[in-house]
Amino acid sequence: MPLPSPARLRAGRALLAAAAVPALLLTATTATAATAESAADSASGPETHRIATTTFGSDLKIALTAHRSGEYEAIVELIAFRHGKGGWRPVDRAPVGDTWFWYPLTGKGAVCDLALSDRPDDEPSATVSLVLTPSLGCSESITVPIDA
């Protein structure tokens, strides 16, 4: 097999360099966009995900929200709302359990049980059971008193 001429080698190198420039620019643009997106995420605060809401009667509503606290961890917060003249207003916030796994909480079937009781002779409370992992199943029920 004959060797290519020096002129042909130079033309091939020039063509290769011309093809590489757009690819390098695209890579640099993508890296810059990813860095900017990451900075925007951290500037906006921790990632949150509304897990569930339920309403009891016409004046008491609760919401479960997961707040990402690490790469795989989350804290779950119960927020109670009362309905008044101005609409729904938050009246209480309480943690649900300790630390949970983020990914199971943000998928389907995160809430195993969510019940709300508001007895006239007792303070309202919520009973919550969340999925630990798909293989472990649901947590024990946790009763969270609501100071509403």
What does the model show?
This protein has 148 residues and is an alpha+beta fold. It has 2 domains: 44 residues; 98 residues, no CATH class. 28% of the residues lie in helices and 45% in strands. Strands 1-2-3-4 form a 4-stranded antiparallel beta sheet. Strands 5, 6, 7 and 8 form a 4-stranded antiparallel beta sheet that branches. The longest helix has 38 residues. It is elongated and about 95 Å long. 14% of the residues are buried. About 14% of the residues have low confidence.
Q: How would you sum up this structure in a few lines?
A:
The chain is α+β, with helices and mostly antiparallel strands. It has helices at 6-43, 102-105; strands at residues 48-56, 60-68, 73-84, 87-101, 111-117, 125-133, 137-138, 142-145.
SSE inventory with pairings:
Blueprint lengths: L5 H38 L4 E9 L3 E9 L4 E12 L2 E15 H4 L5 E7 L7 E9 L3 E2 L3 E4 L3
Antiparallel strand pairs: 1-2, 2-3, 3-4, 5-6, 6-7, 6-8
